[in-house]
Automatic annotation (TrEMBL):
Residues 43-166 form the Tll0287-like domain. It comes from Candidatus Scalindua brodae. Keywords: Signal. Residues 1-25 form the signal peptide. This is Tll0287-like domain-containing protein. Pfam families: Tll0287-like. InterPro entries: Tll0287-like_dom.
């Protein structure tokens, strides 16, 4: 009988000890050190949004190249960048994503193509230093966003019509994307 009580007592004591260690660890590390179901959901949302950025980037760069090759004969009349900005505006207006062009040449054809926030400045620095992709997740007004930027180079000879100081393959800038993660979170 004493062995049964002693055994139960030791098990209870061990349970209390491990519970208190867990509580102390939680307090010393802070709650942000533990993974919650919400964190897993955010990670999945980021992965989905990242795939969307890749698709959008392929699509945007493809239509920029195709428009440049097919229609840009006189850059003073029309440029693929102008059409891109119109598409970006419409997509933002519909709530899909925000996108903007960021100049890396130092002499933007459009003064509106300079970095507009810290993310775009950081992204441009990384892309100028050789990265082809830069991203981070930011929380604004209680909502999470994937902020991503991709490298833009002079992909065709037509690009040099608007950027005569550049050669094929030279860095022109970046496309900055902001996607709300809410649509990618499983409810």
């Amino acid at each position: 009988m004493v062995k049964k009580i002693t055994g139960r007592f030791l098990i209870s004591l061990a349970t209390l000890y491990f519970m208190s260690v867990t509580v102390m660890a939680e307090e010393s590390w802070g709650r942000d050190q533990f993974i919650t179901p919400g964190d897993i959901s955010i990670e999945k949302a980021v992965d989905r949004a990242r795939q969307t950025v890749k698709m959008l980037d392929d699509m945007c760069k493809t239509f920029i190249v195709l428009i440049t090759e097919e229609y840009v004969k006189d850059p003073t009349m029309f440029s693929a960048a102008t059409l891109s900005k119109k598409v970006f505006f419409e997509m933002d207006k519909k709530g899909w994503y925000k996108a903007s062009l960021i100049d890396a040449t130092g002499t933007p054809n459009n003064p509106g193509n300079i970095p507009k926030n810290k993310f775009e400045s950081d992204a441009l620095e990384e892309i100028t230093n050789g990265k082809s992709y830069y991203e981070r997740v930011e929380k604004k007004q209680g909502k999470y966003y994937l902020m991503a930027a991709t490298r833009v180079t002079a992909a065709t000879e037509g690009c040099t019509a608007c950027h005569p100081e550049k050669n094929l393959g030279d860095l022109l800038g970046a496309i900055s994307y902001t996607l709300p993660l809410g649509r990618y979170i499983e409810q």
